[in-house]
């Protein structure tokens, strides 16, 4: 552990930013600092966080699953950065999105909107129905502006794995790396709830968002089904928090992966050429390359770069560092220049009324403290 980091995160737990935190800091492929703090579950019972507690990684699924699997297909020649999705999958043909490329999806420059509640709009969660919903969306100025969007990685997952990347991830990543506590739908894989950090009580956040954006209205007639019934009202614990991923039976290209800090570390190593068992060094360059120079945000393949204004990397990480945050309170940053990995897993949506705390300042301070500690060791 690192005393300064643990003390800082304990203070943020006491301030009710989140009930638990597990962190891991590594350098040159070796774990240097790690600790587990607070309670992974507060209600309906108190369960302390452990180093092997399983967290809902939320949007870390984007780079760790969809980004990694897409990079493997690029390396194998099955796709190219310039591959047009309308030519790669029939569901996107003859539509406005047909000309979008793999690169535009992976760098969030497609012009697709940030989010849509498909669980209220689509007939089913099949790749055909979801792809049809995406192809009907209006896009704006592809390739000119970064607009972070779940839909980019939903589309990518339809392209590479028919929207169900879990089997390929299990076979091509989890089994290869010896991951035993990383999966989609952990309850269905035999894990017990007491091993998993809990999330929000119900889906009140997404429900409020749907009301604010006009997607949720009272039933038009007395006999019509009340669409608000799709929202869970129980303690979300072991099921994915994200509504669209839950609609997709827990498996999606943008959210749904559960894991522990030590196993996120094993996956993170795959993005560094000196450690990767799954990708060639040339492919790893995709994750540190700035594909969006001159735009409003610096993006590499599936990641944000530390050179982006307002990134959560902190003040001392190299500009080529790349990382990603997750809505549930998770984050991963990788510094390829100094061969360092920073993982922070929290469950900020648990046991907390709306609005949830924005923990970006916590992430930045965590990274700064970690780097100070690593630099002192030199």
Q: How many whole angstroms does the radius of gyration measure? A: 20 Å
Strand content: 5-15%
Mean pLDDT: 95
Helix content: 25-40%
The overall number of domains is 2
The largest β sheet comes out as:
7 strands, antiparallel
At the fourth CATH level, what is the homologous superfamily of the largest domain?
A: DD-peptidase/beta-lactamase superfamily
Write the CATH fold name of the largest domain: Beta-lactamase
Query: Which strand order do you get reading across the main beta sheet?
Result: 3-2-1-10-9-8-7
Q: Label the CATH architecture of the largest domain.
A: 3-Layer(aba) Sandwich
Distance between the termini: 17 Å
Describe the structure.
This protein is α+β, with helices and mostly antiparallel strands. The protein has two domains: 3-56 and 184-198 and 249-376, Beta-lactamase; 66-166, Methane Monooxygenase Hydroxylase, Chain G, domain 1 (Up-down Bundle). Helices cover 31% and strands 13% of the residues. It is built from 13 helices and ten strands. The protein has helices at residues 3-14, 61-76, 85-88, 102-106, 118-121, 127-135, 150-161, 166-177, 204-212, 243-247, 261-268, 281-284, 360-376; strands at residues 20-27, 30-41, 47-48, 55-56, 183-184, 257-259, 304-305, 322-326, 330-335, 340-346. The strands form two sheets. The protein has a seven-stranded antiparallel beta sheet with strand order 3-2-1-10-9-8-7, with helices on both faces. A hairpin with a 4-residue loop joins β9 and β10. Residues 220-224 have low confidence and may be disordered.
């Amino acid at each position: 552990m690192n005393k300064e980091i643990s003390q800082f995160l304990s203070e943020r737990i006491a301030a009710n930013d989140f009930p638990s935190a597990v962190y891991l800091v590594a350098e040159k492929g070796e774990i240097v600092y790690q600790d587990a703090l607070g309670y992974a579950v507060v209600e309906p019972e108190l369960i302390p966080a452990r180093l092997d507690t399983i967290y809902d990684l939320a949007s870390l699924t984007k780079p760790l699953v969809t980004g990694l699997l897409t990079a493997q297909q690029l390396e194998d020649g099955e796709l190219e950065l310039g591959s047009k999705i309308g030519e790669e999958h029939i569901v996107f043909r003859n539509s406005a999105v047909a000309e979008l490329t793999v690169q535009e999806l992976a760098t969030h420059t497609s012009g697709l909107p940030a989010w849509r509640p498909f669980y209220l709009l689509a007939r089913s969660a099949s790749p055909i129905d979801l792809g049809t919903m995406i192809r009907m969306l209006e896009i704006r100025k592809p390739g000119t502006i970064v607009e972070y969007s779940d839909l980019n990685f939903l589309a990518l997952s339809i392209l590479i794995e028919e929207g169900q990347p879990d089997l390929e991830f299990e076979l091509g990543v989890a089994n290869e790396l010896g991951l035993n506590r990383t999966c989609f739908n952990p309850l269905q894989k035999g894990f017990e709830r007491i091993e998993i950090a809990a999330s929000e009580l119900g889906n009140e956040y997404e429900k409020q968002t749907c009301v604010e954006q006009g997607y949720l209205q009272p039933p038009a007639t007395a006999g019509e089904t009340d669409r608000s019934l799709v929202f869970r009202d129980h303690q979300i614990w072991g099921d994915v928090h994200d509504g669209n991923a839950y609609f997709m039976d827990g498996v999606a290209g943008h959210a749904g992966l559960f894991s522990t800090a030590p196993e996120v570390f094993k996956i993170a190593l795959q993005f560094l050429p000196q450690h990767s068992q799954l990708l060639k060094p040339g492919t790893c360059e995709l994750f540190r390359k700035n594909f969006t120079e001159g735009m409003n945000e610096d993006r590499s393949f599936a990641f944000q770069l530390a050179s982006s204004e307002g990134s959560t990397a902190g003040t001392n990480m190299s500009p080529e560092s790349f990382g990603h945050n997750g809505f549930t309170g998770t984050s991963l940053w990788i510094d390829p220049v100094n061969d360092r990995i920073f993982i922070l897993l929290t469950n900020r949506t648990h046991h907390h009324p709306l609005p949830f705390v924005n923990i970006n300042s916590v992430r930045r301070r965590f990274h700064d403290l970690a780097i100070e500690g690593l630099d002192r060791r030199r």
